[in-house]
């Protein structure tokens, strides 16, 4: 029996239900929004100040290739969070009858509650057909999908022109709505619950969902001042414009309502891509990254407050801490500003796990899904994984640096018919049906995805093999898009 198995055995073996409750580990889940995998100092980005996330990365294990599976909608967070809470893969999550799942007690917090956990939620939910009050014991300050944005927050900044928007001015509301920054309110709520829960022996599951660093990227001025704009580095894969932005759904998209005079859908800019002017400029990207880093550093400070409160309760040694985000984000990479794409910066968030039996300071590079967190916590809690849960436990990685992913390929999608992706080993294929274009990257030698090999004659067979693997995954995922009809030469 290895160290991890011994720890779990000690935590779970008990003679009565009451004793079992006392020995089950606590689970503290911290969920960011729109945070790219490369925005933590300890994980390789010396430009960003994240001392508390750095601390977690040193104390635990980081999964460097954790993917969101994608989305059926431009609000990628809805799909990611629905997958996390239900354990369903993307298209099954889209079609899930969420009220029925809640009634049958199949949601993540309910599965933990039913093995003895007190469950708590604060912050962003964004799973509209499942009510937080139906699935959690306690709910504090539930937030919508994003704070309100204003017209001044779009298509900015333009070099040489006054900037009408400020990340630290409360007049723009957003995170400042209510008088106190939402990230600070969440930390207040979480520390209050931790202090209260310390008085009880019951194990807890905390679902703490920051809206940060989603736009509007607002933070106190001292955090903005940490990042002088002229010192911000441009991404190595910066582009002024992405060649297939229209066909991939990242430029002009149909509005939700038809134009009154024509009956045809009115075209609007895809919202996220509207955050900086087209074409992208080094100046506009540097300012956007300055504000992105600032709100991450502000969130990091609030996470530090939560970790300090956990330490004060004396429950740190019996608590598993999980930090991740619902997906990543482009902020100038490939000329993009959102998460509605299949590139690494947008598909991959950070994922760090800390707790009993987890080796400190370790990195696991095997490709996994971020929603593997859900069955991982079920295993840690001694709860049974429902048959309908697609995702797989990460527990084998805790002590074994050579553990293999239970997913032999990673699947990605965006919208019904706009983008698809497959990763097998270090090879990645991106498919744009509306442009009839495929792109292929060797992530082992080209992690920033700058060298498209799809048209290289030497890789013709590999492109075809990846395409066939993608079609197989589509069947597994109940993905109805007929890719073969768009690419007959690859079938």
UniProtKB/TrEMBL annotation:
<dbReference type="GO" id="GO:0046872">
    <property type="term" value="F:metal ion binding"/>
</dbReference>
<dbReference type="GO" id="GO:0005737">
    <property type="term" value="C:cytoplasm"/>
</dbReference>
<feature type="compositionally biased region" description="Basic and acidic residues">
    <location>
        <begin position="153"/>
        <end position="162"/>
    </location>
</feature>
<keyword id="KW-0378">Hydrolase</keyword>
<keyword id="KW-0479">Metal-binding</keyword>
<feature type="signal peptide">
    <location>
        <begin position="1"/>
        <end position="20"/>
    </location>
</feature>
<dbReference type="InterPro" id="IPR000917">
    <property type="entry name" value="Sulfatase_N"/>
</dbReference>
<dbReference type="InterPro" id="IPR017850">
    <property type="entry name" value="Alkaline_phosphatase_core_sf"/>
</dbReference>
<protein>
    <submittedName>
        <fullName>Arylsulfatase</fullName>
        <ecNumber>3.1.6.1</ecNumber>
    </submittedName>
</protein>
<dbReference type="Pfam" id="PF00884">
    <property type="entry name" value="Sulfatase"/>
</dbReference>
<dbReference type="GO" id="GO:0004065">
    <property type="term" value="F:arylsulfatase activity"/>
</dbReference>
<keyword id="KW-0732">Signal</keyword>
<comment type="similarity">
    <text>Belongs to the sulfatase family.</text>
</comment>
<dbReference type="InterPro" id="IPR024607">
    <property type="entry name" value="Sulfatase_CS"/>
</dbReference>
<feature type="domain" description="Sulfatase N-terminal">
    <location>
        <begin position="25"/>
        <end position="383"/>
    </location>
</feature>
<feature type="region of interest" description="Disordered">
    <location>
        <begin position="144"/>
        <end position="169"/>
    </location>
</feature>
């Amino acid at each position: 029996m290895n160290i991890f198995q011994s720890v779990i055995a000690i935590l779970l073996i008990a003679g009565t239900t009451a004793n079992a409750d006392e020995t089950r580990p606590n689970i503290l889940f911290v969920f960011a929004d729109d945070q790219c995998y490369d925005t933590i100092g300890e994980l390789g980005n010396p430009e960003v100040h994240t001392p508390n996330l750095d601390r977690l990365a040193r104390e635990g294990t980081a999964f460097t290739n954790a993917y969101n599976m994608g989305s059926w909608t431009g609000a990628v967070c809805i799909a990611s969070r629905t997958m996390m809470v239900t354990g369903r893969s993307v298209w099954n999550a889209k079609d899930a009858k969420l009220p029925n799942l809640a009634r049958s007690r199949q949601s993540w917090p309910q599965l933990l509650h039913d093995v003895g956990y007190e469950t708590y939620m604060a912050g962003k939910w964004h799973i509209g057909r499942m009510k937080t009050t139906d699935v959690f014991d306690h709910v504090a300050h539930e937030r919508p999908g994003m704070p309100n944005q204003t017209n001044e927050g779009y298509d900015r900044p333009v070099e040489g022109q006054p900037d009408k928007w400020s990340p630290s001015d409360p007049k723009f509301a957003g995170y400042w709505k209510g008088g106190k920054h939402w990230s600070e309110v969440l930390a207040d709520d979480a520390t209050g619950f931790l202090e209260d829960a310390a008085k009880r022996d019951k194990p807890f599951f905390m679902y703490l969902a920051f809206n940060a660093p989603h736009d509007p990227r607002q933070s106190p001025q001292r955090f903005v001042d940490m990042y002088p704009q002229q010192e911000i580095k441009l991404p190595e894969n910066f582009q002024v414009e992405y060649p297939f932005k229209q066909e991939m759904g990242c430029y002009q998209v149909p509005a939700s309502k038809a134009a009154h005079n024509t009956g045809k859908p009115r075209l609007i800019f895809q919202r996220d891509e509207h955050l900086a002017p087209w074409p992208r400029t080094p100046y506009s990207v540097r300012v956007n990254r300055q504000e992105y880093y600032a709100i991450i550093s502000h969130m990091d400070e609030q996470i530090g407050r939560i970790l300090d409160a956990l330490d004060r309760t004396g429950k740190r040694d019996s608590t598993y801490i999980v930090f991740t985000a619902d997906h990543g984000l482009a902020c100038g990479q490939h000329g993009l500003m959102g998460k509605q794409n299949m590139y690494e910066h947008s598909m991959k968030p950070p994922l760090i796990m800390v707790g009993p039996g987890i080796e400190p300071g370790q990195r696991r590079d095997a490709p996994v899904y971020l929603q593997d967190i859900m069955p991982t916590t079920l295993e840690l809690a001694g709860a049974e994984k429902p048959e309908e849960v697609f995702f797989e436990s990460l527990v084998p990685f805790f002590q074994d640096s050579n553990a293999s992913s239970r997913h032999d390929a990673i699947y990605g999608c965006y919208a019904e018919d706009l983008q698809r992706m497959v990763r097998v080993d270090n090879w990645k294929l991106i498919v744009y049906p509306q442009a009839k274009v495929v792109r292929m990257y060797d992530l082992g030698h080209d992690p920033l995805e700058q060298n498209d090999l799809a048209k290289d004659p030497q890789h013709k067979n590999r492109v075809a093999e990846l395409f066939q693997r993608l079609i197989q995954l589509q069947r597994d995922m109940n993905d109805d898009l007929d890719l073969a009809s768009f690419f007959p030469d690859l079938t």
